[in-house]
Write a structure and sequence with these properties.
Blueprint (H helix, E strand, L loop, with lengths): L1 H16 L3 H15 L3 H13 L3 E2 L4 E2 L15 H8 L8 H8 L11 E7 L4 E8 L2 E8 L5 E8 L5 E3 L12 E7 L6 E9 L5 E7 L1
Parallel strand pairs: 1-3
Antiparallel strand pairs: 2-4, 3-10, 4-9, 5-8, 5-10, 6-7, 6-9
Helix pairs in contact: 2-3, 3-4
Length: 209
């Protein structure tokens, strides 16, 4: 019984370590620090994101013709944040920094993925990725942004389920988070639609385990 209890405790600790909450908190802190022009806060949030071991969500694919350029907007990236903390204006270099992020040293055992995306004022954009088992998913908008998530999951065995936001659906919120369990013996396609409820174009970061 003691051995089983220890194994259970270790499993629980591992699950907690895989939570995306630390990355969410780091991105929210980055957004708020940038909005307040708090250079110390920006640097601290960059360090927090780096400590999460978050890396590029390369399998997240856009399904529509949304404007792809991130230039002029916040990039949820530690290198971008480091530059802002140093007083550099790198907003027009967001695309270049984002592309370089995919080439940076990625940890083989990392469990948190992030990708900064763009959505027009009052519009929506759709992304897809493959997933199995326990899925955590969040979006954090740049300052002034309000977002809502619709999530549709399907697979070849006939799975067809939705995990949409239900609170403040039309109004939107600065960030969103959800979690759900998927079959682990088959690949499932997750379609994420993000609605921009604000009156300006915004970037947002998608965070996944």
């Amino acid at each position: 019984m003691i051995i089983l209890s220890c194994l259970f405790a270790m499993t629980s600790m591992a699950q907690e370590e895989m939570s995306i909450q630390s990355a969410i908190d780091a991105c929210v802190a980055m957004r708020d620090a940038v909005a307040a022009d708090d250079k110390d806060g920006i640097k601290q949030s960059a360090d927090r994101l780096r400590e999460c071991g978050a890396h590029q969500f390369g399998s997240l694919r856009c399904k529509d013709d949304s404007v792809s350029s991130l230039n002029g907007h916040l990039l949820f990236d530690e290198v971008f944040a480091d530059s802002l903390a140093e007083g550099k204006d790198v907003y027009q270099q967001a695309d270049d920094i984002s592309r370089s992020g995919a080439l940076r040293g990625q940890t083989a055992d990392g469990s948190i993925f992030t990708k900064t995306c763009f959505v027009k004022a009052g519009g929506s954009t759709k992304y897809t990725f493959l997933s199995k088992g326990h899925q955590e998913l969040a979006v954090v908008a740049e300052a002034g942004g309000l977002v809502t998530m619709n999530i549709h999951v399907t697979n070849s065995a006939g799975l067809d389920e939705r995990h949409n936001d239900t609170k403040d659906w039309r109004k939107g919120r600065p960030q969103r988070k959800t979690s759900f369990d998927l079959p682990s013996n088959i690949r499932n396609t997750v379609e994420l639609e993000v609605f921009n409820r604000s009156k300006k174009d915004i970037t947002f970061v998608v965070i996944s385990n």
